[in-house]
Amino acid sequence: MDQNKKNESNEEEVWGKLFIKKENLKKDLPRIVERLSRHLKVDEETEEIIFEKHITKIPEKIKLLLIAIFLQHMRDATKPDSINISEISKRLKIKKTSLSKPLGILIKTGYIKKDSKGNYSVIYYKIDHILEELEDEDRERSS
Length: 143
Fold this sequence. Notes:
Blueprint: H1 2-16, H2 25-36, E1 40-42, E2 49-51, H3 58-75, E3 83-84, H4 85-92, H5 100-108, E4 112-114, E5 119-122, H6 127-142
Antiparallel strand pairs: 1-2, 3-5, 4-5
């Protein structure tokens, strides 16, 4: 019986290297939150996103906002994990007309997705890559 459990555990570990699950992000959550907090903060009461001064480009703001939305959903499953363009516009204080092109590019480049209801969300397994790119840009600005 113990050998069967051990085999099942080993098999899960093997498959876990190939198949990605949102739940697996929970173990990386402290590291992701630490990295994200270098770029933004979230007012817990109002849920306003407060970007650090170096975040100026619309695509960066969209990606970070959608990561924050995703993490808020992980923290509280009653919160949505995606938002529509009107909500993005409201939260970023950017006109909808200025968001359409960057959203389209982010979809084409595989960072975000748009569902059948018109809601946008980050592709969760791209979060590390997004944060890595921002950190690289930070290093370039600093040198």
